[in-house]
Amino acid sequence: MTRNQLTQPRHYLPVTVLTIISLLPCASLAIDAYRDDVRVFINELVKQHDLDKDYVQSILAQSRTKQKILDAISRPAEKTRPWHEYREIFITPKRIAAGKDFLTEHADRLARVSAKTGVPAEIITAIIGVETFYGRITGGYRVIDALTTLGFDYPPRAKFFRSQLAELFMLARDEQLELTELIGSYAGAMGPPQFIPSSYRAYAVDGDGDGRRDLLNNWDDILMSVANYFIKNGWRNGEPVAVRGSSDKNFRIPTGKNSLKMTETVASLTKQGIVFKTDRKSATPAQLISLEGKTDREYWVGFHNFYVITRYNHSAMYALAVLQLSAAISIADSGTSQTGHHQP
Question: pTM surpassing 0.90?
Fold first, then answer.
């Protein structure tokens, strides 16, 4: 039997056993199977993706609602910290040194990936560095708990997380993963690159040709998949990411959140009073990033590749942290860098 012929893992509890479990006084099921939204989810998943209903109910019965997950999603660092504090989390001597070591350890792999995709080794390394400290901190929650908690008990984004829960069932089927054993972040992201289930299914690639897409343990797959994510979102080899800017006396400080859309151009930002150096043509699309520095506001001009980084995490602070960490790693590794410098 081939992997594609499997519709779900073999081991699951029959409905009769689930009924017995639900009657035990010590049992505390996270989900009430008779809730309308839960019943609709189960029926749609079974109908649309040919999954066994007993299997789906069995898996959901083993999930647990976690208050810590609800607490965590309510206060992500990007929303609760100003830029200068957020930056200090990621641009540290320890993380830079570890990035240099990672670059050295995986030099051959990164060289192959960069040559094939055009995504710089330092950028790939910085993504892994920001996400999980180079694979050391990948999360401590069962993914099934994270996605059921957020899918059914977090109304602001319940629809999105229920879709990820459905993707998780299909991912486990496609990749022969033990669904209840998968560990990840409070938002259901997995492995060193922290792919959510839909991203895993859409962007993961088999980097070493062994017939599997393993983003939990296989560094060939992990690194190639991060690069593939960038390529699929339009990374342009050799183009700049962002440059530091300053304002002249005529510049009016923007209010509100930073837009991640490329609504400006080099010419329009210059006209507004932003001073920056670039060899990009005046009509080149750009975006202005205004952030709270330690002593004053910081202005950055982001180009297309900056926007691509924000597709990995929809945050200007995240993208800038990745960029600055990649530059610091490149400097630290300047004697052996495989791809040259990509400094802001």
Answer: no
